[in-house]
Design brief:
8-stranded mixed β-barrel; 5 helices; Diaminopimelate Epimerase, Chain A, domain 1; alpha+beta; 16% helix; 2 domains
Length: 322
């Protein structure tokens, strides 16, 4: 058996959606990964997939929904590059909760005060620090010790073109709202979009009469989604308030989802069920999602997501690759 590689990590969560953050040495020279292979940013995708499955395991690893790899930005003026690996080792394009956790990691190391620009596989995302909170809920003076932040993330313009989601819509015209998706239990009306990663939104009257984890597991791998899909189940409470449950691609049931919350609000607006500024209640708390009206050029506004990120733990993980 080869000697394990010691990897220094931090663990954060954004409303119960938890992530392990591993950064290259330029972000924290005192807590670099120790190993002969060099920085993780230069490791192969297969290596990082194995690491994600190992470190995210809740019995033999640290335990998390995903692994975030932070490295130097590719373009001048950006703060970092973020790669997202799901617990099953698959790489995701974007994570709304994950990017807040990455921002909290960088902010804790004084990488920025009020704003960040992070490169993702879904494009460059802007993050604004809204508040720094102490564990008691009161404003804190020392960011490095209180370990809790609230960020507003520019999530981009929703993708509604089925070819770009991607989704095999056949002759169904965009936006894909009310698509009759065939499942084992019959036809389910779904709304399909992308927030940089694919989403399938399902409206439900409640969460007790629908076996949503089973349905989410089935829809995730439906062949109409070439890259699989995230699934969110939406209960509309009022014009400004919804409750959502999440089945995440490559993870399963999660406490919350940032991109899923955004996709849920996009679906609500497309169906005329809510206004464009909506409170999203998840199993772990509340996120605020806004989708502004179209601008003077007719282009839809950028979705914004506001919510917390909090540090959980820091330590060293011994990655055994054999």
């Amino acid at each position: 058996m080869t000697e394990p590689r010691a990897i220094v990590f931090s663990k954060y969560h954004g409303l119960g959606n938890d992530f392990i953050v591993v950064a290259d040495a330029r972000f924290d020279v005192k807590r670099r990964s120790r190993g002969a292979e060099g920085p993780l940013s230069s490791a192969s995708k297969s290596y990082l997939a194995r690491l994600a499955r190992s470190i995210c395991d809740r019995h033999t690893g640290v335990g998390a929904d995903g692994l975030l790899i932070l490295s130097a930005a590719r373009e001048k003026g950006h703060d970092a590059r973020m790669r997202v690996f799901n617990a099953d080792g698959s790489e995701a394009e974007m994570s709304g909760n994950g990017i807040r956790c990455a921002a909290a990691y960088l902010a804790s190391r004084d990488r920025a005060t009020r704003s960040l620009h992070l490169e993702t596989a879904a494009g460059v995302k802007s993050i604004q620090s809204v508040a720094v909170r102490g564990r008691s809920g009161h404003a804190a003076r020392d960011r490095s010790r209180n370990g809790s932040w609230i960020f507003r993330v520019g999530m981009g313009i929703p993708i509604l073109d089925p070819a770009k989601i991607p989704f095999q819509a056949n002759e169904f015209p965009p936006p894909i709202a009310g698509f009759p998706l065939t499942t084992r239990n019959g036809v389910t009306q779904v709304t399909v979009s992308s927030m940089g990663n694919p989403h399938c939104s399902v409206f439900v009257p409640d969460f007790e009469s629908v076996n949503w984890p089973e349905l989410g597991r089935e829809i995730e791998t439906n062949p109409l989604f070439p890259n699989r899909t995230n699934v969110e189940f939406i209960r509309v409470i009022s014009r400004s308030h919804v409750e959502v449950r999440f089945w995440e691609r490559g993870v399963g049931k999660t406490q919350s989802s940032g991109t899923g919350s955004c996709a849920a609000v996009v679906a609500c607006v497309l169906h005329g069920l809510t206004e464009r500024n909506v409170r999203v209640r998840t199993l772990a708390g509340t996120l605020q999602v806004a989708w502004p009206e179209a601008g003077p050029q007719g282009q839809e506004g950028e979705v914004t997501l506001t919510g917390p990120a909090e540090v959980v733990a820091e330590g060293t993980y011994y990655f055994r690759r054999s």
